[in-house]
Amino acid sequence: MSDWIEVGTLNDIPKLGARVVSRAEGDIAVFRTADDKVFALRDKCPHKGGQLSQGIVHGDRVACPMHDWKIGLDNGIAIAPDEGCAASFPIKMEGEKIMLSLTPNEGCPNK
Amino acid sequence: MKEKLVVIGNGMAGIRTVEELLKIDEERYDITVFGAEPYGNYNRIMLSPVLAGDKTIDEIMLNDMQWYKDNNVTLHSGKEVTSIDRVNKKVIADDGTEESYDRLLIATGSDPFIIPVPGNDLEGVISFRDIKDVDSMIAAAKEHKHAVVIGGGLLGLEAANGLMQQGMSVTVVHLMDKLMERQMDGPAAAMLKESLEERGLHFLMEAATESIIGKNRVEKVHFKDGSEIYADLVVMAVGIKPNVKLAKEAGIHCERGIVVNDTLQTYDPSIYSVGECAQHRGIAYGLVAPLFEMAKVCANHLAKMGIGIYEGTMTSTKLKVTGIDLFSAGDFIGDETTDELVFQDKARGVYRKIVVKDNKILGAVMYGDTIDGTWYFDLMRDETDISEFRENLLFGQAHLGDSGHGDDSRVAAMSDSAEICGCNGVTKGDIVNAITVNKIFTLDEVRAHTKASSSCGSCTGLVESLMSHVLGGEFSTAPHLKPMCGCTDKSHDAVREAIETQEYKSVQTVMEAMEWKTPNGCSKCRPAINYYLVCKFPELKLDDAQSRFINERAHANIQGDGTYSVIPRMWGGMTTPQELRAVADAAEKFNLETVHVTGGQRIGLYGLKKEELPEIWDDLNKAGMVSGHAYGKALRTVKTCVGKDWCRFGTQDSTGLGIKLEKMSWGSWMPHKFKMAASGCPRNCAEATIKDYGVVCVDSGYEIHVGGNGGIKVRATDLLCNVETEEEVLEYSAAYIQLYREEAHYLERTAPWIERVGLNHVKEALIDNPEKRKELAERFNFSQTFMQDDPWEERAKGAEAHEFTPIKVIG
Ligand SMILES: Cc1cc2nc3c(=O)[nH]c(=O)nc-3n(C[C@H](O)[C@H](O)[C@H](O)COP(=O)(O)OP(=O)(O)OC[C@H]3O[C@@H](n4cnc5c(N)ncnc54)[C@H](O)[C@@H]3O)c2cc1C
Ligand code: SF4
Ligand code: SF4
Ligand code: FES
Question: Contact A30/B807, CB-based, under 8 Å?
């Protein structure tokens, strides 16, 4: 894949926090977990479009700030009983550098 | 050699006396008990719930066979004593067993009264007194359909209800025109009858039984007026007569009962008597409360301690039919010299009547809502002068003060000496003590520790209210404390206590030390723990941004469309041309469409992008404005009216006071949002009585109100107290806020918090205990020295920049 872009370094994101990659087609939220895993999701809650980047990260999930839906960070899928998804984007780490692909993973229409 | 104590009657009074005796002197006697019934001692009054199918025999056992072994008490069960040989000091039982005694206790209870009509010995005609009777009623209900209960008193109605629960069609036959005429007055009896009829009982009033008809088994009951009804079971519940046969035959002086003096001694100095068979000062009782008191006194004299006299018991009545609450005590009929206070609400099924003479309560009868029964009973027993609150007497104890929020606050309002369990003489104080000292959480544990609610059970509701009052939200989920969230079994209080005692200093340590089930909590527990840490250690500034909800992390309210609002503080709702100009400039500069005057007397600017926040804050800061914390679980606004300065009704400087309150408390983090108000007079234009803390100025000073809420569920405040000076208002406010900060669960507003802990708890901390109030206020003011940094200013200067800028902008 050729569309990897560097978005910043691990230290730019607080542990259990998120930052936003701002984009005309809609923002992407980049999350960092307690054990330094990094995930990227479309910054749009499947419920009513809340900004997931503003939620509370716990484990491999984020709680949407609007109505507290929980979304899985690795695949963007809402945790039952809620249903829906936010598109997830591939991330790879090159040392401290965070590389993001703008081509979302298959399977979620909410891009 | 030990002396010998023989007890005749293995029932409630006899065994209670033995228990009381063992408590104070285990060594004195070899104790032998004779019981005609082939069981241990059981709770006779619970036979009604057993009949109704709500309890089993096992559950109502008070002393099982093991108990007698453990306490070295010899029990001859199933043996009836047939004679007492006073000359040789021994008793003889029906099977020939003999026991000699040094002291003898007669506790033979009473026998059911069997009306002397033909046919009263037919099969299927029984009384309601012991396990055997209940067994035969339950057996009859399996095979037969029609039951007739003769007697519309307590016992008869409980029998009728039980038989109906067992599936029989039941008719209650009563000689009088009112049910329970000795315990109820006309209106209460009528309401009782109506609701029992609704449940399916039938009544034949003013019906005198003439004969019972049948070949072997009963078939019909025949009345004096010639009418008849079908019956294949007849229960006689027309009264009891003290069981004095044995004593009489032994030549012990008896009247209706065995006559005893104030030490429960009969005319034979080595023979005592307690319970229903005894007659004291002319009265033979038919309830358990008196016999428990007798047991105490009697035990004391058996132990030769010789203190305590029994002076009689004032009794009250309750009916043990689930869902029917009635209460009566004393003289509730009255005469020309007495006044009647009556409250009746037919639609709600509530009736109360209190008979008063010279401002003292002589008696009370209540139906429907009886929680105040114990209070009236206390006032009556203590002969309290009620003139001060006579006009509110009928509305109950909770209306004396200012609350009025269900049973919880009513039990909160009871004094510690108020008796909750009449059967066992257990006071509110005893129960509260047992709960707090033994750290118990279930009704069963309370029963085990205090005996409250373990006899007739009619105080169970009160005990439960009291438990939920003392234990708060936890009780509803007893036996376990309610866990904070799915990540843990620990409750909010447990976490706070651990932070307190173990001095954990980070969210992560708390979760690790307390064995959280998830690696880093969730959006419920993390913000809560973070708050508890911030509250406990203000000086350490432990705040963990990632454990805060976005509004508090960004210090602005996220709106539905993902933009933010900005609301600067306007102290006490006051502003200046300069501030207004700054607000107007900012609105123009950032192209804001919405500028709104908020309900808290401030101006809100809506529609800002996150990136713009630090800049607008900087602009507002320059005009001297700071964050209004409109987004936080924190002090929000202090609403005021213009007060004495401008308003003709104003009594004090409510605006100035509001500003002082706000300057004192802004910046403090709380369990939930916190709003205040100060009104210049009781017209209350600042709506102080729906705020978390409201001040209403009056001529003589200030009324302080707490625990109001204007949200989804409106709650008016409770009046905390009146004070005279502004300094006091400020001190009370600081102390109250700190109490709330330290005790409420995260996300619990003051209204539910007060309902949980009770207004009295707050009063105890703030009013009864000036020392504690001062300490609380000091802790608050100390904490404030670390809190009053304007978060906008810090961020406008570049703090937490990552929060407000994208990591990358593409395209
Ligand atoms: C169905 C029912 C419901 C009741 N509900 C309530 C209520 O809600 N509230 C309330 O306060 N009270 C209530 N009572 C009354 C209460 O149960 C009595 O007041 C209490 O049990 C009296 O205790 P006692 O020890 O005096 O008599 P008992 O408990 O009757 O004990 C006497 C015992 O002595 C035995 N005995 C008698 N003679 C001899 C002998 N010669 N030799 C050996 N043993 C003998 C009897 O078999 C009996 O077991 C109720 C009673 C009944 C039957
Ligand atoms: S509360 Fe009283 S003093 Fe204040 S504005 Fe209203 S009427 Fe005037
Ligand atoms: S009343 Fe409802 S809609 Fe209006 S501001 Fe409050 S929460 Fe929003
Ligand atoms: S928009 Fe995310 S939970 Fe409602």
Answer: yes
The yes/no answer on whether domain B411-470 falls in CATH 3.40.640.10 is: no
Q: What is the mean pLDDT of residues A50-57?
A: 93
Closest among B315, B325, B270, B269 to B292, alpha carbons compared? B315
pLDDT the model gives residue B406: 46
Which ligand is nearest to the Cα of residue B573, counting in written order?
2
Ligand 1 mean position, distance from CA B42 (Å)? 9
Q: Where are the alpha helices (DSSP H) in B200-259?
A: 245-249
CA B639 to chain centre: 36
Cα B257 to averaged position of ligand 1 atoms, centre (Å): 14
Number of domains in chain A: 1
What pLDDT does residue B799 have? Answer: 82
Per the CB < 8 A criterion, the answer to whether B6 and B282 are in contact is no
B552-627: what fold? Sulfite Reductase Hemoprotein; domain 2 (3.90.480)
Q: Residue A108 domain-assigned?
A: no
Give the C-alpha separation, B371 to B374, whole Å.
7
B554 at interface of A, judged by CB pairs closer than 8 A: yes
pLDDT score of A1 more than 60: no
Query: B172 and B149 in contact (C-beta within 8 Å)?
Result: yes
- Burial-class residue B58 by CB neighbours within 10 Å (0-12, 13-18, 19+): exposed
pTM assigned to the model: 0.53
Third-level CATH fold of B639-787: Sulfite Reductase Hemoprotein; domain 1 (3.30.413)
- B569-613 pLDDT per residue, tens: 999 999 999 999 999 999 999 999 899 999 999 999 999 998 899
Between A22, A63, A65, which is nearest B558 by CB? A65
- Tell whether A32 is covered by a domain: yes
Q: Where are the domains of chain B?
A: 3-109+242-302, 125-238, 325-403, 411-470, 492-548, 552-627, 639-787
Please give the distance of CA B500 from its chain centroid, rounded to a whole number. 29
Topology, domain B3-109+242-302: FAD/NAD(P)-binding domain (3.50.50)
CA distance A96 to chain B (A): 14
Strands (DSSP E) along B545-618, which ranges? 557-558, 564-566, 594-597, 603-608
- The helix/strand/coil state of B260 is strand
CATH number listed for the domain at residues B125-238: 3.50.50.60
Note whether A99 contacts B: Cβ–Cβ < 8 A.
no
CATH for B325-403, options being 3.40.1180.10, 3.30.390.30, 3.40.50.1980, 3.50.50.60: 3.30.390.30
Give B770: exposed, middle or buried? Use CB within 10 Å, 0-12, 13-18, 19+: exposed
User: What is the ipTM score, two decimals?
Assistant: 0.86
Which domain CATH number covers A77?
Answer: 2.102.10.10
For ligand 4, atom 3, name the residue with the nearest CA: A67
Judged by CB atoms closer than 8 Å, whether chains meet at A57 and B546 is answered as: yes
By the 8 A CB rule, do B682 and B690 touch?
A: no
**What is the A80 CA–ligand 3 centroid distance (Å)?**
28
Testing ligand 4's pocket by substitution, the residue of A69, A77, A82, A83 carrying the most ligand atoms inside 8 A of its CB is A69
Q: What is the pLDDT of residue B410?
A: 67
Written as six digits, the tokens of B594 are 């919405």
From A43, A47, A110, mutation site for ligand 4 pocket: most ligand atoms within 8 A of C-beta: A47
Cross-chain residue pair A56–B526, CB shorter than 8 Å: yes
CB distance from A65 to chain B under 8 Å?
yes
Task: Extract the residue ranges of chain B whose pLDDT is less than 70.
Answer: 398-410, 441, 454-458, 471-481
Assess A45–B contact: CB distance below 8 Å, yes or no: no
Rounded CA gap, B679 and B695, in Å? 6
Strands B218-223 and B209-214: antiparallel
